[in-house]
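Dig into what follows:

_____
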Amino acid sequence: MKRFLFTTFLIIPILVTAQMIGGPDRKPGEGEGPYDRLIIRGVTMIDGTGGPPRGPVDIVVEKNKIVDVISVGVPKVAIDESKRPKLGTGNTKEIDASGKYIMPGIIDLHVHTGGVPKAPEAEYTYKLWLAHGITTVRGVPTGEVDWSLNERERSAKNKIVAPRIVSFHRPGKGKEWKGRKILTPEDAREWVRYAKKKGIDGLKLNSHRPEIMKALLDEANSLGMGSTAHLSQNGVAQMNALDAARLGLTSMTHFYGLFESMYENNDVQPWPIDINYGDEQHRFGQVARQWNLVKPGGEKWNALLDEFIEMDFYINPTMTIYSAGRDVMAARNADWHKTYTLPTQMDFYTPNRSSHGAYWFDWTTEDEIAWKKYYQVWMQFLNEYKNRGGKVTVGSDSGFIYQLYGFGTILELEMLQEAGFHPLEVIRSATMNGAEEIFKPLKKPIEYGVIRPGLLADMVIVDENPLQNLKVLYGTGAVRVNDETGKPERVGGVKYTIKDGIIYDAKQLLKDVEAMVIKQKKERGEE
């Protein structure tokens, strides 16, 4: 597939998924269970609520549900075996997790699955996600409507090795709507009704004109559908984040429209007079120049925080996807690219004027300084929002701008900590908060996102303490000097990802990904 096919690919990255290959049927040996009774023994639990870790506990799972969490002693004291839950006989399994940590499965609320030419097989992306403890993803979208809904159902039935999938789509999408455009509020309402009947979970919105935005959101909210928005820069002058929230938007993704909602002395961004939004270095280089257009702690800043809190508005910042703007060399040379990045994916990242997000045409020190300053202000807003009780969630948007699926999600956790979040608050954003955003429009209690009896068995087991170092969640682990040998070594990486009661060996998933990378390199004569 030649790159010129992407010349119009500026706003809607899902065009790359047109010829994606769905996940293959789950083979024997790919995941164990679910079991009639599974007991994870002696683990230290981080439950996802923000409460402190506790352990040792035994966690009892039956089929795909957590049925009990039992304290079985105190740290550094031998466990009284007579007080532990019994395994029983039959289709059962025990995991000795002594010295290990367990947390809920990570929920990534902004994903795309890849596509031609960068990552044409969904298996590659699915396994990278699961290998990083990601048990639920919200596609915005993951692919074309019918394809993504089919993959969602296959994952729900565990026919494929994949996280559970929530499927959001852009207005006007769907084969039955091919050739039709949304031109009036009634068109907008009709499409939302169509989407609901089709089984779409929610709307991924742009900065639509006000009457269209209102119709889309009114109809979606009345039908119990979720909504989030990428309020593109070329539309925020008429539809910023506050405008959209007042019309009924329940969450925003990225940062577009956020700063514009609290400018001190401007109504629109004071772009250079030679700006051309079609030039992606203009687009992404200039947006960071907003950092000094707002006043942290000022009247407009505080008013926006207060109004978002009153609306119970969710912010899904996806800081990770723009982080290369602060240090493109670090992003380009990340530890994982050599082993886990497909050559076609790296081709897509490489500076060129056709691939979305490959905008390093003449990236300068000044550009990076602007992005560093922008992040300081953005992070301050997110931390203050969290401190006031606002809901911040985790999203990655990986597959662009040197960010790789799975790895980018863990980087987002690190960036939340950089913003001022305690590691327990980071994990809460990645688990409970994400689940609450998914279930809020359904007016239902969460079904996963916390380790609690009655909820689905979506959990992650790690050898190391992620609160001490979030880097241990990366597939490449963290580097630590072994004081016995005097040499550095890699520690951590997820050990097991449990989705719907099925236990996946995260290290094996990474080996499967590595094999896919090696195969493609051989086919290209690169190894």
Summary: Confidence is low (pLDDT under 50) at residues 1-17.
